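User: My collaborator sent over this chain with a note saying "see what the structure looks like." That's all I know about it. Can you take a look?
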Amino acid sequence: MKLLVIRFSALGDVAMTVPVIDSLARQYPDLSITMLSKGFVAPLFVQMPDNVQFKGVNLNDYKGIGGLYRLYKELKQENFDGVADIHDVLRTKVLRSFFRLSGVKTAHIDKGRKEKKALCDSKDKKLKQLKTSFERYAEVFKALGWPININFKSIFGIEKGDASLFKAVATPTTKQRWIGIAPFATHKGKILPLATTTEVIQLLCKDDRNHLYLFGGGEQEIQQLQALAEGKSQVTVVAGQLKMSGELALMSHLDVMVSMDSANMHLASLVGTPVVSVWGATHPYAGFMGWGQSEQLAVQTALNCRPCSIFGNKPCARGDYACLNNLTAQEIVSKVESTLPHEP
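Assistant: Without extra context I'll predict from the sequence alone. Here is the result:
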């Protein structure tokens, strides 16, 4: 049997498919699985079981209905028995429709849009834990006839990532406590204030056992991280220095990662590293907590307006982003300290 799984979208969303697809592959070793996504996420699937193949596509090469039909014709040659659309946007709806019309069984994700809207409603908020993305992905495979138990620890199994992949920025030692910090996100409602990040770094650097690794992406973020690290021998900027495979390997060697509700939270989760997750306009109840992470390590403020959006992309109705500005560096550091080894 052959299954096509479709999920384009952002890095964090694709990362959340990994525990589910890995579990599916191991529980159904005779099932041949092809993961269709954007090419840059390929490193997430390198360590998958042998019955998983990754197919990266540049969507700019398949624009419009005509382009999607051409992609469908290319994929149809693989003779898939089922198609799992775990994205459910216009592009994937069209693609799965071509398969369905040709007689291939398809199923798609229920994103729970109505529940998520109620979670963010400013007047009649229904604040409750919703299904996680992992559960929603698993439901799609169950609908196609492959129910699964999600049993996943790390893309590296019981091992750590290859240290040679990050030798440009770090060499494993037994004396230091390694802490990752990823203070950025795509949207303003999920970015830690610069002053808070600065204080977190200052507090953690007071303990000479700590070494900090700063993660981010893009020229502007890299410049800000370099400014934060300037003059601090205990701080290394990782952003812009490694490929994704190297960042994943390094994350697996961290004692803890501090991350916003962003892709880095999910990447660290995929390598079994504890994450102190920091939440502003968004909320763990929406179902996007990193795989295997505890809400006890989440840092967030109790405001009636939270969450105001699922993605943190709406302007603050209060105008002051209290959900982020009211967070203290000490709160974050205390959570970090609770995860670290305390031997001298």
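A starting point for your reply to your collaborator: The CA atoms of residues 129 and 285 lie 4 Å apart.
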